Amino acid sequence: MPPRRVITGRSQEPRRRFAEELRLLRTERGLSLRKLGEALGWDWSLFGKMESGQTLGSPEVVQALDQYYGTPGLLLALWELAVADPSQFKERYRRYMTLESEAVSLWHFAAASLPGLLQTPEYARELLAAGGLCGDELDAQVEARVGRREVLMTDFAPQFRTILSEVVLRTPLRDAEARHAQLDHLLCMESRANVAIHVLPMSAGLHALTNTDIMFLRGAGGLTTAWVENGYAGDLVQETAAVERLQHRYDLVRDLALSPAESRKFILSMLEEVPCESPT
Q: CA angle, 182 as apex, 224 and 214 as ends, to 5°?
């Protein structure tokens, strides 16, 4: 079979293609970045970063561009593909990202930090910076992590259940206002029909997953894979017997956790303890 002929010659990688389309639409109209910023009311440097691939921008910005260029839905569709593109993540996470995007249900335990699917940009930035990232790489990884939240927002979003160790919720951020926003975001996500949050109180003591963050991913065919992670590495566990052993441990921990209703009250009580404005 002869190789498929390339029609446009433009990139087939979602993030690069999105940036190329933005640049092409602007240059075809003879616009400078500054003129585009003035027309849409955003800082022109944002559009420069989007066209160079440094950032994807927000859906609101992309929708405004679609309207301005007369391309209803085109740029937003390309943006959605770019946000979901697993190649933006480091190599060892890409297989996991693919499984996550295809999963029909997800269940999770957090021993040390919030799952990426529930992180605000501020929380993600502080966590990733603590791991040594900085500069453009930090910006890119924060954007990629926050973009993962779209997995839970679509019309066909998977069911997601997480058990959060109380330690995760008690760990402060440098900015009290950012911590307040993160707790508030958990309550917003918990209100979604496809999301359930349990809190595992410290009074539960030692348990079967004391030092393990874990995510179970069930695909449409019923096969379940586990992603086990610590601060340095993550591993996919696919062998059936091993996954079942981990699921048994998860069930033991869930038996110790608060119900979703009790957990909501717990997070609300914590929210009242955290100032919503940083001291000046």
A: 20
**What is the C-alpha separation between 158 and 148, in angstroms, rounded?**
13
State whether residue 89 is helix, strand or coil: coil
Cα 97 from Cα 76, distance rounded (Å): 21
- Give the position of tokens 């069911």: 159
For residues 251 and 41, give the distance between their C-alpha atoms in angstroms, rounded to a whole number. Answer: 51
The whole-angstrom separation of Cα 209 and Cα 230 is: 12
Q: Find, among 182, 164, 56, the residue nearest to 122 by Cα.
A: 182
Tokens, residue 246:
């981990």
Distance CA 142, CA 87 (A): 15
Which pLDDT tens digit goes with each residue over 205-264? 999 998 889 999 999 888 999 999 876 667 889 899 999 999 999 999 999 999 999 999
- For the stretch 21-46, pLDDT in tens is 899 999 999 999 999 999 998 888 88
Give the pair of three-digit tokens for residue 8. 């446009």
Backbone CA torsion sign across 18, 24, 26, 32: positive
The C-alpha torsion from 153 through 14 and 58 to 86, rounded to 10°, is 50
3-state secondary structure of 206: coil
pTM for the whole structure:
0.69
